[in-house]
Amino acid sequence: MTAAYDVIVIGSGPAGYVCAIRCAQLGKKVAVVEQWADDKGKPVLGGTCLNVGCIPSKALLDSSHKFLEAKEHFSDHGIGLGDPQINVATMMQRKDQIVGQLTGGVAGLLKHNQIDVVQGRGKLLANRKVEVQAPDGSEAVYEAENIVLAAGSLPIDIPVAPVDQVHIVDSTGALVFDAVPERLGVIGAGVIGLELGSVWGRLGAEVVLLEAMDSFLPSMDAQIAKEGQKLFKKQGLDIRLGARVTGSEVVDGKVHVNYATGDETHTEIFDRLIVSVGRRAQTGELFAEDSGVTMDERGCVFVNDVCSTEAPGVWAIGDMVRGPMLAHKGSEEGVMVAEQIAGHHHPLNYDLIPSIIYTHPEIAGVGKTEQELKAEGVKFKVGTFPFAAIGRALAAGDSDGMIKIIADENTDQLLGAHCVGPSAADLVQQLLIAMEFGSSAEDIQMMVFGHPTLSEAVHEAALAVDGKAIHMANRKKR
Ligand code: FAD
Ligand code: NAD
After folding, report:
1. Whole domain around residue 62: which residue ranges?
2. What is the pLDDT of the chain when averaged over all its residues?
3. Which of 186, 290, 313, 358 has its Cβ near the most Cβ atoms within 10 Å?
4. Are residues 151 and 203 in the same domain?
5. Whole-angstrom Cα distance, residue 330 to residue 338?
């Protein structure tokens, strides 16, 4: 047996490293076990989010957005650039540099907080012991008062499109293409399909998304999803709903994909194919049978509402437990668990976790959707406002989309906020803060919003809830 700790965290993604830092801030002696290593054998910190998820995808989304702006919109401002060219290698170097800066930052923060990084694959044994297999094959066992499992998730594979990371790739492969594919196929029109499909579409690829479901983004508010679908179509993303992929084959460097819609069968030929059909919890060989940890029916580690597993002193957080697979959800669970380990009560409001798709325009939502409230039989009122009537959006040439606020018909309390439009994520976050404080639509109506800002859309949508919007013709009158 080697060193004993107060807390051992398995996994250094946004759930694990945040939990470790907060535990250390609360005076605990902490170790983080991480299995990921770079080509020099050094530990890679930051998990999916920093290395192959949120951050690199957003770097490419920003590069490709700037390219499209230069190509199609700068001339509207009188700026002539000729025919802009994309240097994919430079774009990738920039992305890698940002990832390096942030993962180095996490290493620095762990060091500053005197957290030990133990390199290797961790496995929970009985009685809060953790066996770590180092990259050289050697094994050591550590023990702690509390163990936090934060091993994250992996892309789901489908047998009809086996990933080879050359022609058929998952999200990780789609972040490192060395050239813009002429024709790009995407299986799954969810968050990753839309974000990475947008990246390569903006750079010139013809993008076809094959989505099994008949409805588009069913977990988002239906009105906002419909508006988003219209805008993506305008941008050239070819989204085919109700498309069941039945097989694929790589022939002479091209991917032939067979799929069915209803009774019809189709074949498409692509240069590259991205498989983005969801992710699954990474639980393989993470805990011994006698560890006391159990699984739920969806293949996640079973936890209660405060992230405690069925084994005393063992917690699990982030993508490997129920709820949305989002970095901010995992991080806040990490803080919640650290506070509990220190004996503090610190619940997390799972009803107010924002969902964001970082396309352009962004799509964001928090709280209840209109379809959820209808299903629950709740009486509500809705205010929507288009960005086409927001001066700042027009000035920026970025006025597609709308914002929508839903309030309780009887109490006026805000129940949901949904948006497709410029800076949708930040606008919805404003409403999330209001919702957390139990605000009514009237509270927002009576606030002063700076002019000219995109935030004025929040104000106008809140006014529209009661038919009082100023800068559009209201349907309802007061
Ligand atoms: P992870 O980040 O997956 O980290 C788990 C870590 O545990 C890894 O480093 C892994 O190596 C390590 N590990 C696993 N098993 C062991 C073991 N046995 N021993 C030691 N170490 C182990 N979310 C957002 O909120 N916003 C976004 O914009 C966003 N964009 C995304 C884009 C893409 C392309 C992808 C793929 C995901 C994106 N996500 C986004 C999701 C986000 O990345 C995840 O929700 C988040 O990373 C989950 O954090 P985690 O700490 O639970 O797990
Ligand atoms: P997703 O669940 O968002 O989308 C998967 C899509 O694939 C769904 O629309 C589903 O109906 C479809 N699908 C499933 N099987 C299919 C099949 N056989 N054929 C065709 N379509 C099929 O999952 P994702 O896009 O892979 O992303 C994985 C996770 O990563 C998500 O949970 C998401 O929360 C997270 N993520 C978040 C962000 C963000 O917050 N901006 C970005 C990327 C990823």
Report:
1. 2-155+280-350
2. 97
3. 186
4. no
5. 12
